[in-house]
Amino acid sequence: MRGKMLLLVRRTHLYLSVFFAPLLLLFVITGWAQTMDFDHSTVLMERLSKVHMKQYFPTEAGSGRKPIFRTTPGLQGADQKENKSAVKRITRPFKFLVAAMCVALIVSISLGLILAFTVVRNRIPVWIALILGIATPVLLLALAHMK
To answer: How many domains does the chain have?
Structure first.
């Protein structure tokens, strides 16, 4: 690829990356919180976790803490115990790996945003992509609450 085609590919990558960066950060942070078992430690984190898991933002806080082990409907006896033991098998080293991945992704996304604002002369389209990347999910989640 040469010339204008390469420029088009680079600009497309830049604007798509900036547009999806806020949503990626949301999913990385809430996924990290769920892995580390502190997804319900605050009302905000509980609500943001709902966006991650159920694709909606609750307007009111939950009715309390969720059980540590969620049973799958239809599992009985030994199958239910096996499901609980599978949840217990999430090891501490794996949690550290997930935490390292989340930190690396957050740093990488942040560096990408910094680069997006420094490699182009006209920053207005980058700002527009970032604002739309924040506003679009907020708007779509807000529309779910309209009657």
So the answer is: 1
Please answer whether residues 117 and 126 qualify as being in contact, where contact means their C-beta atoms are separated by less than 8 angstroms: yes
In a domain, 41, yes or no: yes
Quote the CA–CA distance of 7 and 120 in Å, as a whole number: 11
Residue at 4 is within a domain: no
* Cβ(26)–Cβ(51) below 8 Å: yes
Percent of residues, the chain, with pLDDT higher than 90: 42
What's the CA gap between 104 and 89, in Å, rounded? Answer: 24
The mean pLDDT of 6-11, rounded to a whole number, is 92
pLDDT tens string 116-131: 999 999 999 999 999 9
Task: Determine, yes or no, domain membership for 13.
Answer: no
Read off the amino acid at residue 100.
Answer: A
